[in-house]
Amino acid sequence: MNQAVTFPVETLLARVEAIYRRAGLNMVQATSIARVIVAGERDACKSHGIYRIEGTLRTLKAGKVRPDAQPRLLAGEGEAILRVDADGGFANPAFDLGLGELAKRARKLGMAALVINDCTHFSALWSEVEGVTSEGLACIAMCPSYSTVAPAGGNQALLGTNPFAFGWPRPGGHPYVFDFATSVAARGEIELYRRAGKPLPEGWAIDADGQPTTDPDAALAGAMLPFGGHKGSAIGTMIELLSAAMIGDMNSRESLDYLGTTALAPKHGELIIAFSPERFAAGRPGNPFDRAETLFEAIVGQGARLPSQRRFQARDRATREGITLSAEEVALLDRLHDQGLDAIS
Ligand code: NDP
Ligand code: PYC
Asked: Per the domain annotation, does 250 fall within a domain?
């Protein structure tokens, strides 16, 4: 019987990458998605950590994501809108390909947008946002998902859990980042409650008859609710418009129709917009980065915490001490490593 094991981050990364290579992913796909999954685990974001490996492999086995995809950057000279065709692969290698040019153009033009088309997206968005802030730029990122959320006042799944993330670079430290589902919680959280045999908090979901439920199975068969009632519902709808209708890609309903199940990772597009704070400030009084620090100090000065603070603390700890996985998690990794896609039902 396996025991809980603490892995150095790089060791876990190599192990997850080996699982994907064994399953048939090319290097560009395996490297990028192993990195975001291990980053999720490292940052104590269990809903987008190693538990996602099985879902991605199931998607691969079902033939709904291309293991040999080679993303292509399509960038007209001097244009503010860049596009990466993910070639039916995962979103993360497509983002990695587009980041450098996105940053270059945002610095030159003041702002630029990266559209990713034809991708499978299963991960947390802070990874993309932090890529952009590491270039000294502010960023928003969004994508649809598949229909699992009822609009406020409705009773059936229509919108996705549609994540929305924002990042602001902070010289010499971790950026300011928030990143959340526009549903009350990410669907991954519901799955973790189900696995733990625990009831959901009130107000997260309705069952297939539109009645409130705290039963994770009934919630998964019914619909989740948007956060903040009509406000989250409207933001989720905006995400369907900007990162599906506007970029010529699938919305959450179309993605679910395409997959026929929520047991696979959703396919759609993604929109990432980068801003140069200096270019927007245009020399007006006050350095935007200094003004931002004054605001952050005022927030923290009241005893409030900044979003992502918990995550960055977990990251710093894991980087020092490693990532501890339970005996069950280690057994799962061993099985996936040894049996490849045969381990996936
Ligand atoms: P959470 O509600 O756990 O967290 C949302 C944000 O709020 C985080 O930035 C978090 O920072 C911050 N936060 C939490 N508590 C506080 C607090 N008390 N004070 C200040 N800030 C706070 O996120 P969700 O469950 O909604 O989403 C989890 C992840 O799921 C996201 O990364 C999202 O991208 C991903 N997701 C991906 C989807 C996809 O289709 N790819 C779909 C839906 C979600 P901290 O992390 O430090 O706690
Ligand atoms: O947790 O809601 C979620 C989710 C959907 C797709 C990827 N993550």
From this structure: yes
